[in-house]
Specification:
Oligomer: single chain
Mean pLDDT: 76
Shape: elongated
């Protein structure tokens, strides 16, 4: 039987089938390449990109989200150019190495400014530093970035920005702004303290702002600002008076812990003269811990955490409220875990 001659329609149909098969195969190769990217198999990714580099951008973004800088670099070598998308992903995740690689390719000032805002919102101090270093025109926006970090309660980012000379010019207003926010999170107290450490001196304004919000910040302003003589200004309402009472108790115990006897006596005098109801007596447990902690301030960094963990101080929870800028809870927990592990090992031996 004679062979049938293929019509143009037949040829088109055959070509379509071949094209669809190739597209399916390429799609499968792309998915396999992305799977290899997620697993960090750089050699496998390279083989797939050799076959088809059209999905280099996808590899780049996948590599960035997994903090695989070498695979990201490989994707760029094969033509990836979605630099802003990758930089945004690295910034949000706080991945410094991928971001540093992307910044080598160059981004516009506008892109860098947007990334800086993202870093502040997400609380990523490390990536923010890289972004600012890459943008020589970022100076004008640094105070605004600090305000964003403060509004989100990101103490580490705020502390980094407070060290900049252009931000320090607005440090008083930034400290006041932090004192006006919702203080359910301890980070706002830390931010106010960092602002004071970096030159804020508007202690009275901070104190008034914190009256109905947070005795911890009020205590900080009283302790650092030498404004005890204005204490009557803080007792105009019952609610403010209660906050002041708590703040004075905090300063009193804090001063005892630090051996600041002069401030201890000043608080006693204020409490007596102004008829403020303040509990100046310490319970026996806390007083014992005060004595045992009094020498710990001369310890090197980390020594206080070790001292507390080793001695199992029963009043740590109470004392920690007034030592939170000397020792973090994480430091204490890690030291305590290490101590307990050592004790368990000794018992097992």
């Amino acid at each position: 039987m004679a062979a049938r001659t293929l019509t143009i329609s037949d040829k088109i149909a055959c070509h379509k089938e071949v094209i669809e098969a190739l597209e399916l195969e390429l799609s499968q190769l792309k998915h396999q390449a992305l799977d290899a990217t997620l697993l960090g198999n750089i050699d496998t990714v390279r083989e797939y990109l050799e076959i088809d580099a059209s999905y280099a951008n996808d590899v780049a973004i996948y590599a960035t989200t997994k903090d695989y800088t070498e695979i990201l670099d490989l994707a760029i070598q094969y033509g990836a150019d979605n630099f802003y998308d990758c930089a945004s992903a690295a910034t949000r995740a706080g991945y410094e190495a991928p971001l540093e690689r992307i910044l080598q390719e160059g981004l516009s000032d506008e892109d860098l400014e947007t990334l800086a805002v993202i870093a502040c919102r997400e609380g990523k101090a490390g990536t923010l530093e890289l972004i600012i270093d890459a943008n020589p025109n970022a100076n004008d926006g640094a105070p605004a970035l600090a305000e964003i970090a403060i509004s989100r309660g990101h103490a580490q980012v705020a502390g980094f920005l407070f060290k900049r000379e252009d931000v320090r010019r607005d440090i008083d207003s930034l400290a006041l702004y932090a004192s006006q926010l919702n203080h359910t999170d301890i980070d706002y107290y830390i931010i106010v303290k960092l602002a004071i450490d970096n030159g804020a001196t508007n202690f009275y304004d901070i104190a008034v702002s914190a009256l109905i919000r947070e005795p911890q910040i009020l205590a900080l302003a009283i302790e650092r600002g030498d404004i005890l003589d204005k204490i009557k200004d803080f007792t105009s309402t019952n609610f403010a008076s209660a906050t002041t009472q708590k703040a004075l108790e905090i300063v009193y115990k804090n001063s005892l812990l630090k051996g600041n006897n002069l401030l201890v006596e000043e608080i006693r005098e204020v409490a007596n003269n102004d008829d403020i109801e303040i509990t100046l007596e310490l319970d026996e447990r806390f007083e014992k811990d005060v004595k045992r902690l009094s020498k710990a301030y001369s310890y090197p960094k980390g020594g206080l955490a070790q001292h507390i963990a080793e001695n199992q101080l029963p009043g740590f929870v109470e004392a920690a409220k007034f030592l939170n800028y000397e020792i973090s809870a994480d430091e204490f927990v890690e030291s305590l875990k290490a101590r307990q592990a050592q004790q368990s090992h000794s018992r097992a031996a």
